[in-house]
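Input sequence (164 aa), recorded before submission:
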Amino acid sequence: MSNQLDLSSPLRTESAPAPTELITSVGSLRALRVSKGFSIEDVSVRLKFSTRHIEALEAERFDSLPQGLGLRSMVRSYSKLLGIDPRPLESVLQSRIGSVEGGIANHTSIRTLGAHHAENAQHSGPWAWLVLILLVVLAALSVAIWQGLVPAAWVPDWVEALFR
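Predicted structure, token format:
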């Protein structure tokens, strides 16, 4: 009966011990990921980033990665998954992340969007709409005359000559 498995004990896996030193290099993320027993696909599924992005981060191919807030959230999520402090990695990547302050409210507030739109918009006023409506009416009238839908008595001779 020694061939039976003991199902009462939890499943145990063995992996290399996790490094205890402070992670300050993006390239060391791969070694830590492998030591924790995660595959690229595991990390990709958990972080909701593509495997291509995870591989690019681990290989320090920063041109293939998102910039700014996207990179910052990727580094923070990856650090949280691996159980390390993200601040040293963020300081290494500061030139790629840029300054992101104040949270999402400062980036998408209605006031900010309205001010940005007002600065960049060229106000043409109601004249543009009036010209557009006039062109549509003229096009519709031209088609009506061309198709003979307007009585001949209503059309001046010079306009009728244009459609012959």
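Checked by second reader. DSSP finds ten helices and no strands in the chain.
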